[in-house]
Amino acid sequence: MQFRFIAPCHFGLEKTLSFEVKKAGGEDVEVADGKVCFSGDERVLVRANMSLSGAERVGILLARFKAVTFEQLFQGVKAVPIEQFVGKFDRFPIKGYSLKSKLSSVPACQKIIKKAMVERMRSVYKIGYFQETDTLYQFSFSILKDEVCFMLDTSGEGLHKRGYRRFSNAAPIKETLAAGIADIARVRGGDVVCDPFCGSGTLLIESAYKALNIAPCLNREFSAMSWSIIPRELWDEVRSELKEKERDCPDFKLYGFDIDPQAVKLTMENAEKAGVAKYLEVSCRDIADFTYPENASCILCNPPYGERLLDKEQAQRLYKIMGERMPVTDGKRIFVITPDEKFEEHFGSKADKNRKLYNGMLMCRLYQYGVPPLSVRRHDKVSNI
Ligand SMILES: C[S@@+](CC[C@H](N)C(=O)[O-])C[C@H]1O[C@@H](n2cnc3c(N)ncnc32)[C@H](O)[C@@H]1O
Prior knowledge:
Blueprint: E1 3-8, H1 14-23, E2 27-32, E3 35-40, H2 42-51, E4 59-66, H3 70-78, E5 94-99, H4 106-125, E6 139-144, E7 147-153, H5 175-184, E8 192-195, H6 202-211, H7 232-244, E9 253-258, H8 261-274, E10 280-284, E11 298-301, H9 312-325, E12 333-338, H10 343-347, E13 353-359, E14 362-369, E15 381-382
Parallel strand pairs: 2-15, 5-6, 8-9, 8-11, 9-10, 11-12
Antiparallel strand pairs: 1-3, 1-4, 2-3, 4-7, 6-7, 12-14, 13-14
The structure holds S-adenosylmethionine.
S-adenosylmethionine (SAM) binds near residues 200, 203, 259 and 286.
């Protein structure tokens, strides 16, 4: 079967995700704000869930239409053959959101959509009441500027849940964002990667996944695993196929430092769970005592912002110390994510590039040093999905 998929992502990571999508076999890739759409069959569905490091989830896009009245919303949803997925006894809950649209009440939209789905199911299964006790099919909708997207989730838990980070420190970076940063930094198997504020180790682990070509969600469960339309053996087949593509890189190395001994312990534990501990050395160190580890080629960090950790002034003092301890020198790529618009001033050096990236709702910038100009691929179609 052919599907149209929709994969939401962090604002600022759409382009990076679109490359991953193509690698996973996605076709007709379209990039829009905070999401990437693509087409593919069941195999692409499975591969996308297991391998897309920057996607928050993978949904099947069932319908896209304009609606400014409840009747239009009702008819638009009722026209979708959800019975292709949902059986007589299956569960089919609906959730969603509405932004900048005439149909602004989410509970009211939810009610109308559920009514349309039930009516459709009644006409197909010829029963009046649905017990909804079996397999879960989680539907969702978004209404943005009066355009409705009606979707079916295939992932279940968000794809940032890789399974290696059961515990984290006070302000961890989300795995999907960390993966995007590692992608932008072009971490490769020959790199020596270092994070002087490693926290729970997310940037290091996601860097290792990139360098070693490890699919981040290889060993977790997905909602669509219990669906009858996806052959059971496909999950094992794709898992083996992706496993075969993993590589061992003897020169690859990870160094993590943090002032907090708990963070140091956590980074090692998480790296062990992620299966990349053999590449990692981690120790307790204040940035004031930092020096580059031997052959360090790529420095990634998410220092305190003065939001959840430290206050603004303390954070800025830290950025000044970073400038002294992390000199911008040839052969080192440095990437720092922070919301501080004056970061370069405190750090004492102007970035070669900076890129807007959202850390949750917080607008940040990824300051990039020692980065040669990228050959930006301009052929991707940009549209309003
Ligand atoms: C925003 S967190 C980093 C989170 C990390 N990226 C993760 O995914 O868990 C900032 C880290 O900087 C550490 N830190 C704060 N002050 C420091 C200093 N002076 N030197 C080194 N590390 C410091 C904190 O202990 C914290 O773990």
